[in-house]
Design a protein that fits this description.
alpha+beta, Hlx-hairpin-Hlx_DNA-bd_motif, 14 helices, Endo/Exo/Phosphatase_dom_1, Endonuclease/exonuclease/phosphatase family domain-containing protein 1, 6-stranded mixed β-sheet, elongated, 8-stranded mixed β-sheet
């Protein structure tokens, strides 16, 4: 014990340097500049240039550029009001600062109506925007939103005729007011529950994006995030804490740089109300830092548009061994939301390797936490099979769990407190090798017949290799609720061999819930 640890606890914010409202003139004559000196060309401006406009920050500038790209360029200044977050009032304030020049790139031919960008995009419109269409009642607007959520985005404007309430008289009127644009990724779809339409069908978690120009092969089905609302943090009228474990499989800086990976990890934490996560297979500290920064200052739409509080996240992990600081060294770590009141009391590396014996195992990490009056300890483990074929599920009982023997003194001391031993344990919880845990009256909370693995295609795999074991004191606080998260672990932006739509890890996150005494 006593190995040094690395913690993420950022200090002051880095202030953004204001951009000077100056633009260099091109040597070539630009008539747009002559017509509007000092004004911003909406069709050519970068995000930084748009941020010089009144009331425009990074997020809004990014949305303006995205909208401009999708419609192939603004036709008139008033079209700016159609961008989410602008509206008529803000557009009027910005009107004197902007003008519309020739589009800087070829129009996106996916838009079915390039001549009228003032139309409402039926695949992105909110309930209020749909209801604002001429001839559309509240009931019809709800029907359109419900149909879009249940069956996926509209592929043709004429498909509105399949919506209940859109009769042959109303459809021609709607065709003059709408366009069918490139649909948003599912994590940004409006939640039916927030629109007052009740519980959505779980089967609607997958939408087809065939024939959509997103750089994705035709006929490929994009899995999307289940619609969700923030977890209340209460069960049976009592506040609870959700603790989880997730083997992120070779979690390196390069992997964390993928926006799809960051969005999946962050949304999984937020959607499932997880406040404390034990992570396995962390190869580089910067990977964890990128997750914390994504939650703090999101760069992905799915995290940025999360309707609830994203929290303030910290991490702790062991430092790499001396001389291997720049290498990818597998370690375990804890990631937690300190804004929830969760406090790290101590984190200690636990020596388990016997002298002269080495193995592919990460050194366990003991973390002691406090939330309210509940104090508890976690032992984060990652134990692998000795076989060189590291397939995630051992084919024989070759896992050298004898290295758990040195944990016995610690278990005996911690046994009187609320203790959870969790992580990637490599074998089913009913394996005889776990006798050392049962001797200390720890019991697994995830049943042995529940798979915690995924295939590379995202389908349910075989084996219950991830688990959370609880001491009898911890079971006194246990609500009886646990879960294995299988949905929403893939993204169109995660590579999968020569294709896209891969998963973050072949191991599912598992969670349990504790009452806060």
């Amino acid at each position: 014990m006593g190995q040094s640890l690395s913690c993420y606890n950022p200090g002051g914010k880095t202030s953004r340097r204001p951009l000077k409202n100056k633009r260099q003139l091109s040597a070539a004559c630009n008539f747009a500049d002559l017509l509007g000196p000092g004004r911003v060309d909406l069709n050519r401006a970068s995000e930084e240039e748009l941020m010089t406009l009144h009331g425009v920050g990074r997020t809004l500038a990014r949305d303006i550029v995205a909208y401009r790209t999708r419609i192939g360029g603004f036709r008139k200044v008033e079209d700016l009001a159609l961008v989410t977050g602008v509206g008529a009032t803000r557009m009027a304030q910005m009107k004197s600062e902007v003008f519309v020049g020739e589009p800087g790139s070829a129009p996106n031919l996916f838009s079915l109506d390039l001549l009228s960008s003032t139309r409402v995009d039926i695949n992105r419109a909110s309930l209020g925007q749909i209801q604002g269409l001429a001839g559309v009642t509240e009931e019809v607007a709800q029907g359109i939103l419900f149909h879009r959520t249940m069956h996926g985005p509209f592929r043709r404007a004429e498909d509105l005729g399949n919506v209940k309430g859109v009769d042959p008289a109303l459809l021609p009127r709607l065709l003059l007011q709408i366009t069918v644009g490139c649909p948003r990724l599912a994590s940004t779809y409006p939640d039916l529950r927030s629109e007052g339409l009740g519980q959505p069908n779980a089967a609607a978690s997958f939408h087809s994006l065939r024939e959509v120009d997103m750089g994705i092969p035709l006929g490929w089905v994009v899995p999307v995030r289940p619609l969700s609302q923030p977890f209340s943090g209460v069960h049976n009228g009592r506040p609870v804490l959700r603790v989880a474990s997730w083997n992120l499989r070779e979690f390196s800086t390069e992997k964390a740089q993928n926006p799809g990976v960051r969005e999946v990890i962050c949304r999984t934490l937020l959607e499932n109300g997880i406040q404390l996560l034990a992570v396995q297979e962390v190869l580089q500290e910067e990977a964890l830092e990128k997750v914390c920064l994504e939650l703090e200052n999101p760069s992905t739409v799915g995290v940025r548009e999360w309707p609830g509080d994203r929290g303030t996240w910290r991490y702790v992990l062991m430092d790499a061994p001396q001389g291997q600081e720049t290498q990818e060294v597998e370690r375990v770590a804890f990631l937690w939301d300190c804004s929830s009141g969760l406090e790290l009391l101590q984190a200690v590396a636990m020596e388990t390797q016997r002298e002269g014996v080495s193995g592919p195992h990460s050194q366990p990490l003991l973390g002691s936490f406090k939330m309210g009056t509940l104090e508890f300890s976690l032992i984060n483990l990652h134990l692998r099979p000795d076989s060189p074929a590291m397939t995630g599920q051992p084919t024989q009982a070759s896992l050298d769990l004898l290295k758990l023997e040195p944990l016995k003194p610690f278990l005996q001391d911690l046994f009187k407190k609320a203790l959870l031993t969790l992580g990637h344990l490599g074998l089913s919880p009913d394996a005889s090798e776990f006798a050392v845990l049962r001797e200390q009256q720890l019991e697994p909370l995830v049943p042995a017949d529940c798979s915690t693995e995924l295939t590379r295609c995202g389908e349910e795999g075989e084996g219950s290799l991830q688990n959370i074991w609880a001491s009898h004191t911890a079971r006194d606080s246990y609500t009886g609720r646990w879960g294995v998260i299988r949905l929403g672990l893939s993204s169109p932006w995660i590579p999968d061999g020569w294709s896209w739509g891969g998963i973050v890890s072949t191991h599912c996150p598992v969670w349990v819930e504790l009452y806060m005494k």
